[in-house]
Amino acid sequence: MTGADGALSRFKTLGTIAKNKLSNGLETIKKSGNSSGGFDSSDLIIRAPIVTVIICLLATGFFLGHSGINDCRDGYQPSWCYEESAMNVNGDLEVYLPQGSSVSQDLFRVEEIWTTNVMIIYVESEDYNITTVRILEEMDKVERGLNTVRDDNGLNDDIIYALSISTVVKEVNSSAGRVISSFGSGIATAIGNEDLAESINATLSQNEDFVGNYDIPDEQQRIDQILDEMPQNALDKLVRDVGRDYNNDGIKEAEKAGYWNRAVIIIGVADGIDRDGDGKPDSTVAELIERTQGIITTVAAENNWNSDESDCVQDANSTDGERCLNLKMTLTGPVPLTNAVTEESFKLFWKVFPIGCVMVVLSLFFFHCDLLQTGRIRFVQGVKVVIISGLPTLCSVFITMGIIGFTNYEVTMTVIIVGPIVLALGVSYGLHITNSYAENKGTPREKIKKALDSTGRAVLLSAITTIIGFISLTFTPMAPIQTVGWCLAMGIIVVYLMTMLMVPNLTMILDLKKPSHPPPRIFSTGVGIPTKWSKITLTVFLVFVLISAGVSRTNVEENIDLLEMAPQDVDAVQKLGTYSDEFDGGQPGFLLIETD
Asked: What local confidence, expressed as pLDDT, does residue 249 receive?
């Protein structure tokens, strides 16, 4: 027993020693872990600062080309810019209709048979009657250039129809021949003699000058006869006498010119024609508008529409010398208007966005260079804050816009608000982490770890709640609001990731050091007011909320005029307003009539 007791005693002693050593080891590991902060996500983020920043910049460079910044536009047309827009922007007015509404459903049923996309060519003839032979011939040249195949329903030229005083004259002029041809074809079919129909058509072709064809008549008398037989309300839709402004000062010296000096060519546009069977439309609305404008420009140049009067023959019906018509045609209408508004919106965005970036940079520098605190400028400190907080945000904007373009996600012109919102939120995220870093003590690694452990969590929570708020926009039945909601939610995700990746590493690389100063008195006083008079503050804000919800909300204007929202320096916008005033028209309306 004595030997057994001794062995047992030795085992207990060894166990105690092992237990003490293990406890000491664990305590050492624990202390070591506490001293180094442990290995967590913050260690992974700041493990290789320079490499991480370079990777983020490379990702930004990849998406930069898809963000639209290199799209050709007014004031920016270098040889390397992109003619085609980087983003898939839907400028159709129909996209703004609530999905599933009765209006959108009825419009879809109309579009199954007819087109609702309309362009208008506004014709101005200052010196000659619109219905003179030569003016009608100029209109005919434009119409034939656009609608190359009249009865193809847009399959060959994307134009379904052209309606104007010119087409009316041509239709009436060819009506006799078409009636005779139809009558002859009916007789030939009845007697089973197809040769008779061919003979009749050949005879009509040989006698077009006598019978009439689909052309502008050479005789002014014939044109006048056709117009005399038209009802006045039909003429008022196609031609008008709007008076004369002799000195182009915007004031009409004569309320009536005594002849029709304004006309319109209404063009029905085919939508989504796919000739090659690849599942994609062969031409976009922008390309069709460009082609139409090119035809107008070409015909105008070839026929001296706007030559100086001293170099032209004044008689509009003369065939001697160059013809001076003082004629102008402007492309407008709903389709060019929405296209112009969309293009102009993106042009203005890339003009205004850099200004916003400069203002953000100046604000960051002003509030972080210690000018307000000490009256002296710490230039290096201000520049460091601008780089640390501004660069990740700018990268986030370009990556967000670039992802939209790279994925070819269909958006509307409302997507331009994504840039400013991401810019504002991204700067605030970066500033929270930067200021927390500057307030902490220790080595740069220790300070950034403390900032990420404290402020980083608050930034994450802020990003999550913001994303939830933007995603709520996707539950609306309107596509423009849905796309903005998804794009903003994606933008917040991107700006959060870029903030967490770039801000800590840039802060360590630049080693930001901000001396501690008391805040300016005006800020301290402003912050102290709500805490000292909390009940009064809450009451004031509650009153404002009630006024906004109960009174001001009802005063919000909901009847939006697209013409007023559109940029007024665009010809398509100006002429659509003029057309609306002079012809009492603008946006076409459709009355769907169905019977059993």
From this structure: 62
Q: What is the pLDDT of residue 60?
A: 94
Residue pair 128/134 in contact (Cβ under 8 Å)? The answer is yes
DSSP for residue 270: P
Domains contained in the chain, CATH given: 38-115+369-523 (1.20.1640.10), 117-167+231-343 (no CATH)
> In the numeric block, which tokens belong to residue 256?
């009536």
Give the span between the Cα atoms of 237 and 249, in whole angstroms: 27
Judge contact between 50 and 506, C-beta under 8 A: no
What is the Cα Rg of the chain in Å? 37
Dihedral of CA 309/312/318/322: which sign?
negative
pTM reported for the whole predicted model: 0.74
H-only helix segments in 230-308: 232-236, 285-302
Q: Of all helices (H) and strands (E), which one includes residue 445?
A: helix 444-471
Tell me the C-alpha distance between 72 and 490, whole Å.
26
* Percentages (nearest 5) of helix, strand, coil residues in the chain: 60, 5, 30
Query: Is residue 333 within 8 Å of residue 563, measured between CB atoms?
Result: no
Q: Which residues of the chain have a pLDDT value below 70?
A: 1-41, 176-212, 246-250, 253, 306-324, 517, 557-562, 585-589, 596
**Amino acid letter at 482?**
Q
First to last CA, the chain: 114
3-state secondary structure of 265: strand
pLDDT digits over 511-568, tens only? 877 777 677 777 777 777 888 888 888 899 899 888 888 777 777 766 666 677 777 7
Burial class of 383 by CB neighbour count within 10 A (0 to 12, 13 to 18, 19+) = middle
